Amino acid sequence: MRRTIAIVNQKGGVGKSTTAVNLGASLALLGTRVLVCDLDPQANATSGLGIPKPSASASTYGVLIEGRALSAAVVSTAVSGLSLLPSSPHLAGAEVELVPMLSRELRLREALERGAEGYEVILLDCPPSLGLLTINALTAATEVLIPIQCEYYALEGLSQLLDSVTLVQRYLNPALDISGVLLTMFDARTRLSEQVAVEVRRFFKDKVYEAVIPRSIRLAEAPGYGMPVMLFDPSSRGTDAYMNLAKEVMTRGRDRATVVGHAG
Fold this sequence. Notes:
The chain is an alpha/beta fold and 264 residues long. Helices cover 42% and strands 17% of the residues. An 8-stranded mixed β-sheet has the order 3-4-2-5-1-6-7-8, with helices on both faces. The longest helix is centred in the C-terminal third of the chain and has 27 residues, at 237-263. It is globular and about 50 Å long.
């Protein structure tokens, strides 16, 4: 069963693109065929994987707005088994262009259904908003992964995100599930990080991943070189954290599949 995971938080700077790039690379290194779809006009996942910004047609914009085939826009990356649907600056206008379209919330799901054969996991890197691009991701996804930074106001605005997920579940995608909450930018030297981690675990309980992403210079530097941290510095703490997260994501996926199988 293919898994499509939307990485969502309407706050910026919480580690969505970092997670899309490094979780995708980690899963691929573990032998999983992965597609990262960059839905953010800032294209951080695209540059973080060392891919030059493409033309409008050969990007997420071309697939969503122009109806281009997914296969015509997907590119390979330096990590074997990891492919990318790149973003381009043209995507900035997509929110407005989607408004008058029929089935505007279903554009991404339909594109993936037509052209994403062969991938075991699809990661959707969402923009920092709850607009139509993010709604497209939630409608196409089977799961939601929410990165939360270990800083002040970490839970601020999350009720709005959870309300959006509930609405998508009710009207567009009943199978959508919040599969995990990821603590990012954790600094073990500060009491604040510990306090935020405790608060998040109290709120989300067993939805929180055991893997925690540290605040790391190597993680911050890697995108500047256009590569995941596990290629940039295989021995770094960031590499260990994302490899541990990938194993946990796969374990939870197997558990989820077992539950669904029993329910069927």
